[in-house]
């Protein structure tokens, strides 16, 4: 019985998804691609330092699209926000990260 | 008021008045968003997405297989299409054949006249002749367009090409777009053109290549030029000018193919109302343009814009190449000037003179003596000129605007004229220098005007184009094409020599003597 469960776990373990997966987004196609790019670079650069990652995301987006941007990077969180239309990005990355960026 | 607190008026500054102004902009639209993320939600989302991707991949695979299968069946279908096309083609050929036979049957009388009828009354009429109307051809879909040019095919004596369009000066009708047509007509089928090609705007002029009878150069109203190969099934132009760089700035008025270059490259000349004569060389995939000459008028411009006076440029309307020396050509302009130019020298004109009071419509070299040429103009006159002279040898006043004039290819002294009030007039300088030998109205003048004339090079037939896209074919009676017969006895003269002599005899009396000869003094002879 245990063995059977182990083999099944092995099968499941084989698939570890780390690609960026956009959950909710109302940006234009161009902006969306660029924002995803920004988030990926930030998250890959800082690894587990989510604070630094969120800070970088915010700063880079501020530079690109003007203030004021907000970013949340974390493994588990709940948010309720009001954002400007066409500026919301909510995505998963690395298999265990949820990232949300928006502009007030 | 004392001098210490007195301020001069100019030292007083105005008090700045402050005003408040308020504007409220609409706030940027906002949305609410709420969510929460946990590890298992993230994990589930990834799995869901992965499954979706997997499914799509499989679907694509299945599609690929399906496409592969369908390709096979499609190729079968194509074969069917080809056979259908073939049958359609055969049908078209048969239908064309049928139409031709029916036309030949219904118009048998005209066809017989075309070949065999010679007006017997001509022998009692002195030198006067008549014209026998044969066919009238109309392309129904373009019946409001003008026939802007006619050119006989060099290969088939019963075929000619026609351009239809609205000529310069006539604005395109407001209720219809500016279109033009290039049509090939055959005398064997006067009911419908052999070849129709709709062009993007009014076609103005065309010319058949003399050696390659399938190549047709066409000039357009908007300055474009195109070369069509009428033997191909495609209606696309083989060569077309570039809309930005190469095309003429104004309406193209005449195109003329000239002798191929020594290395076999085809080339033609065009004259446009922007005052330039251009040479076009057909390369592998494009036409290369060379501006040969710009027709600069020597008149001082009367209007100056901001002190800058632009040089006046003649708006070219017609071009005629010297039949023997292909480097020399004559250009007529809208202002009534005739320029004699040379392809080698573009900086100066060999000759430049005011020939007419109004626009010159055609210049034509005599078929036998290239020193003699004709010009016609909107000022109702036709003038006969001799090379290197500014004074016309003969002037004919037609009382109506003359739209076209051409020397007859059959006789050295006969030329045909068409006027805007629908008369076709023939003159024979040998018979009468002041009176025409034939003046035949084609239509009541209110219906349309005549625009172009073309002599067939083999048969005694002329075609006349009108402003209602109608083309009328007319047969010249024997008196209009009298040829000098070589005498049976005595010295042997060729027809060529006799024709030349006839022309010179006719013109000699009009020429000014070269130098005044002082008559011999009677007294001196006495002593």
Automatic annotation (TrEMBL), chain A:
The keyword Transferase does not apply. One of its GO terms (biological process) is microtubule-based process. It is found in: Cytoplasm, Cytoskeleton, Cilium axoneme. It comes from the Eukaryota. Keywords: Cell projection, Cilium, Cytoplasm, Cytoskeleton, Dynein, Microtubule, Motor protein. Pfam families: Dynein_light. GO terms for cellular component: axoneme; dynein complex; microtubule. The keyword Transcription does not apply. InterPro entries: DLC_sf, Dynein_light_chain_typ-1/2. Force generating protein of respiratory cilia. Produces force towards the minus ends of microtubules. Dynein has ATPase activity. Belongs to the dynein light chain family. PANTHER family: DYNEIN AXONEMAL LIGHT CHAIN 4 (PTHR11886:SF2), DYNEIN LIGHT CHAIN (PTHR11886). Consists of at least two heavy chains and a number of intermediate and light chains. This is Dynein light chain. The lineage of its organism: Eukaryota, Metazoa, Ecdysozoa, Arthropoda, Hexapoda.
From TrEMBL, chain B:
One of its GO terms (biological process) is cilium movement. The keyword Repeat applies. Keywords: Cell projection, Cytoplasm, Cytoskeleton, Dynein, Microtubule, Motor protein, Repeat, WD repeat. GO terms for molecular function: dynein heavy chain binding; dynein light chain binding. Residues 61-84 are annotated as: Disordered. Pfam families: WD40. Residues 69-79 have a biased composition (Basic residues). GO terms for cellular component: microtubule; outer dynein arm. Its main location: cytoplasm. This is Dynein intermediate chain 1, axonemal. Belongs to the dynein intermediate chain family.
